Amino acid sequence: MALNPGYEEQVKKNFRFNFTVNLVDVAAFMFGSSFMSTSAVLPIYVNHFTQNPLLIGLISVIGSAGFLLPQIFTANLVERAPIKKFFPFNLGLFLERIPVMLLAPAAFLLAANHPTFALIVFFTLIAWQNFGAGALMVGWQDMIAKIIPVHSRGKFFGLSNFIGNFSGILGAMTVSWLLARNEFPTGFVIAFACAATFNMISWGALGLTREPRDPETKPQVSHTDYFRTLPSVIRSNQNFRNYLITQITSVFGSMAAGFLLVYSIQTWDMTDGQAASFNIALLLGQSISNLFLGFLADRTGHKFVLQISIAANILSFILALVAPSPAWFYAVFALRGVNLAGNFISGMSLPLEFSEPKNRPTFIGLTSTAAGLAGTFAPIIASGFASAFGYPTLFAISASIAAIAFVLMRWVVRDPRHIPQTAGQPQPSEI
Rounded to two decimals, what is the model's pTM? Predict the structure, then answer.
């Protein structure tokens, strides 16, 4: 889609404003998420009801599958919508924000006296929230790609996540204090209420975005016809195909991540407050990495940052394997933070550069849904390995698979930003 001068002028005119309000959006969202961390808070909550690895692993299944799988199913709608903000803002209130608001009252009313029902409601709400977020994510990413130029995206994601995660350290310290000072489930009720508050602040900032209408829109096609074109998109772009394979491998290389906290609790008989303190290390690693990796991505490209992310993943499992005491797990979770930061900054940004703007939602959707399919099965497989062979074996398997992903990312995938383009090839988005 060729961008006309008027469109480009609107993007430039509103760049600073859009950068600022979306910085607040992401930072508030990330801060709120620290109160319901899938790595260091939600597993502790579920551990009060059951120690079944399958149910604990279900948190990761829902988080990955819900967030990633629906994206290809909304890409067709997003690709043809002149305003992308409609999806994350208008639909987002009902599909993503309301379930977070219901977590605290559900824990308050059910956790103490109705544990089975409380667990069912909990998984229902996080499934609602994650699948809702996944359905809206293509629209949000495409909106960001429209209003933030390509060479500023690393800075945007890095700075917003840095602010959100660094302030999230305060949130993690607060959660640790809440869980240590309050009997179950009071600490979780307060933590979930804080998550909901900042989630809504995020939504309000998102609503201020000034997004220009697309100068051209693609003609409407049925979902059936749209899905028929997807195999040819993958076949015609070998580099993108290699990237998909690498991302799927990387997901399986992270399949043990959701069990690190439970392993530390069961191995050293830690309290909720002690275990929740690992979230501080996670957010500290994530915060510092976001600031550094965001600017690095703008200079070197997102492929290099993903290599760093995968390397941190490998090191986290190796360190967990050899850790002689729970104190070592602060370093383990700090490395998890590096991994999450790199995945967020560059895992979101690199797919935007494989295609021209008019096809961008399709490439976003294909990338996310491929990773989502892998993420659906990876924690289930990990649960099976954990039950059959124990957590240390699971960590070793994950590290080995992650090493394969690193090799693929380093030597097989080519950075689309640095590939000379020829006529007929998909062009990376420049704005």
Answer: 0.77
